[in-house]
Amino acid sequence: MTLTRRALAAAVPALTLPAAAPAQGAWPDRPLRFIVPFPGGSSPDLTGRVLSEHLARVLGQPVVVDNRAGAGGNIGTDAIAKATDGHVIGLSINGPLSTAPALYPNLPYDPAKDLIAVSLLVRGPQFLVVNNDLPVTDLPGFLAYLRANPGRVSFGSVGSGSGGHLGMLDLLARTGAPEMLHVAYRGFPQATLDLVAGRIQAMMVTTAAVLPQVQGGQIRAIAVTSAARFAPTPAVPTLAEQGLANAESYGWQILVVPASTPADRVARLAAEAQRGLREPTARQRLEGAGFEVVAGTPAEAAAFLAEETERWGGMIRRLNIRLDG
């Protein structure tokens, strides 16, 4: 989904800044804890550390990255939502923020009520990638192969309801292609290894997760889900260029804070995220990992999150996607 003017201008009361009391006294007056709901070395961890370094410089307090991995990011995101000491911030991604409410009937937090979306930090498109032995080089060829081999082509993802799973289902639904066999993995590294080895034939996966393998020729990218071609791989055409319009999708990371956070602190964090991630060194690190730096405002982040939740959460409910599928 592109970051449309409609999304940026939308009024989303539940996700925009609350009518909170102003902060009392100097803030922060002690170290900040920056919760990242994924392990060290992950893409969210990179963004969190880049931003935490900037915040420590400008806020005058240490910013300690706290990796709270587990449950696809839900554990760490819940920890952000439940924090009450006024010195916890964090980031989260598509799953815990936009699809988890539709997947988990007993989710312990409500993104729309328990969190404030401060800034859409970065986003990256997805690649449609295939094993090198699959005899296809573009989207029309891939779809023709699926139709000639119904039910015999497998794709991997990091679980039901994940961005890659939903992206592939969206592609199949839009094109009328037959179902594929879905193989769920605990993480991108094992899924990528199996794709390289040919144990699965395809994936829809964030560019950041497989960019080295694509550039190294270990797997073949036949489409990218961004509106324009992805700069590090200019030879890979978009879905739209291959006849599938309005199908853009992105993996993204949003800076979030507990809903009790005063509005002036939210505004300050958003301003510093915009400054910090646009610094040349920070931008270079993030773009080198396959991301586009967005670093927008709280209103933009709230509208974008609401639109993504409506799109993908609606798809989960419409297709009755379950976590064991």
CATH fold call of the largest domain: D-Maltodextrin-Binding Protein, domain 2
What does the largest sheet look like? Answer: 10 strands, mixed
Shape from CA axes?
A: globular
CATH architecture descriptor name of the largest domain = 3-Layer(aba) Sandwich
Instruction: Specify the number of helices.
Output: 12
The helix-and-strand class reads alpha/beta
What share of the residues does DSSP label as strand, in percent?
15-25%
The tally of structural domains comes to 2
Q: How would you portray this structure in words?
A:
The protein is α/β, with parallel strands linked by helices and 325 residues long. Helix content is 41%, strand content 19%. It is built from 12 helices and 10 strands. The protein has helices spanning 5-9, 43-59, 74-82, 94-103, 111-114, 139-148, 163-175, 188-197, 207-215, 263-277, 280-288, 298-319, and strands spanning 32-36, 63-67, 88-93, 115-131, 154-157, 181-184, 202-206, 219-224, 250-258, 292-293. Strands 1, 2, 3, 4, 5, 6, 7, 8, 9 and 10 form a 10-stranded mixed beta sheet that branches. Helix 2 packs across helix 10. The radius of gyration is 20 Å and the shape is globular. Mean pLDDT is 90; it is low at 1-23.
